[in-house]
Design brief:
By secondary structure, the protein is an all-alpha fold. It is 78% helix and 0% strand.
Length: 196
């Protein structure tokens, strides 16, 4: 029975580490989708001047920070600007704006819900494993061992939930900032929608 408590601690570490990794990836995805300040200035100029955003693209190297961290792939905002400015009729331009609005709304909802849910999994799973370690040690009349292994599992669970909370706040901030930038771009583009 003495090997069960270390196994439960390792299992707690794997569970909590996996949850923290998921939250870190959620934050990284939202951070990568957030256009840099330089990219936003370029997109604002393209939206107000009426020139396609792609015409200014060569000024920026493909792997630069302004590309949103996605290599040579253009940000969705840039694609939408090109589609709106190149649209022959109003419904096509509105459809492009709706695509951007939907994408940003889904990303914000993802940032608000996923990290807290994963944090709860880390907390509840780690707590359950900690209580199991305590119960196993107490059943064998090992009070000090129960406190040590169970306390370590509970501490890992709380730490994992805290890490998920931090990544969740960072992901929400990035998603909310992107939403504000998108609203500004949409306001600029609405002035340039085709009349029919």
């Amino acid at each position: 029975m003495s090997t069960l408590q270390p196994f439960l601690l390792i299992l707690t570490l794997v569970l909590v580490g996996g949850c923290a990794r998921v939250c870190a990836r959620v934050y990284a995805r939202h951070r990568a989708a957030l256009p840099s300040d330089g990219t936003m200035q370029r997109l604002r100029r393209a939206a107000t001047s009426g020139e396609g955003a792609a015409s200014e693209k060569p000024q920026e190297s493909p792997g630069s920070a302004g590309s949103g961290g996605r290599g040579s792939e253009r940000p969705l905002e840039e694609k939408v600007i090109s589609e709106v400015l190149g649209a022959r009729n109003r419904p096509l331009a509105v459809l492009a704006l709706n695509e951007l609005t939907t994408e940003v709304s889904i990303a914000l909802q993802d940032a608000r819900t996923l990290p807290p849910a994963v944090g709860r999994v880390a907390l509840l799973g780690g707590t359950a494993l900690g209580l199991t370690a305590m119960a196993t040690a107490l059943r064998n009349e090992q009070g000090a061992t129960a406190a040590m292994w169970g306390g370590a599992c509970l501490l890992l669970a709380v730490a994992g939930a805290g890490v998920c909370g931090v990544y969740g706040r960072l992901a929400r901030r990035a998603a909310e900032r992107r939403r504000e930038q998108t609203r500004e771009l949409i306001r600029l583009l609405e002035r340039r929608l085709p009349s029919t």
